[in-house]
Amino acid sequence: MIDERLNLIEDDDPKLPGDFGLAFAVQQHLDKAASELPSDLASWIKLRFDECLDMGPWDTLWNELAPQYRLEAAKRCDEIFKFEILKKRFASEKTAAGRYTLAEAARLLASSGERLAVVVQMLCDAAERSELPVYSWGERVRFVQTAGDSPSWRSKEAYWDDLNHWLTKHQPRIAYSFSPPKKTALAPSKSHQLRNRRHALDHVIEVAVSRATDPTNYLSVWPELVRLAEMGEPPAPLLGYVDAEGIKYQVDAGIKFFTKNALRKRMAA
């Protein structure tokens, strides 16, 4: 059965926190065929199914899955997508901090004329002897090997200055020096762009964007905005949420409503 395809997707990836995403968006449409879905939702499902599941045409998969498995597939897409976001974030932080995996560092050292296999082993041995401080992926606390532990040293990370210090002390004849990380100007984030457009809801939209599973998709941001509006004491200037009207908020001239379509246009600008 097609439902059994989901059993091929193992739960090896970390479970990451988050509230609303594709799974939330499809909840009211689980009994619909692919051709009956709203066009914007169908586009989102296609994007995520293609990226995260890779199990054939999205519409064929959707139509052949039972409703409960459609929801499970959407949840799995959310988990994988959030995991990929974290990987990119850690990779960016690693580069900005001047951190290299030992495999990456070895390739750079080999560019100076050393044999790659020899350099890889040399760095791994140095890390195992605690001569070279190393760190696990995404962590800032130095890695310490425990009894019975057999880590993959090649994937451990070292800072540029620690690498240089180790080279100076233990391999002074290797003609290579790791450069300090360059400070680069960050491109404006979606939240910065929203803030620069001055609107009464700038702050709460930024909060919703930061909490959304997919911060670039208004379908993911909108439920977060609604949740903020429906809080017992919503943040100013929110006053609540009205089904037929949208997000209710206060301005100097009186009361206004902010709709899902308005959010779509605002995020697309």
Automatic annotation (TrEMBL):
Instruction: Please indicate which superkingdom the organism of origin belongs to.
Output: Bacteria
Q: What is this protein called?
A: Uncharacterized protein
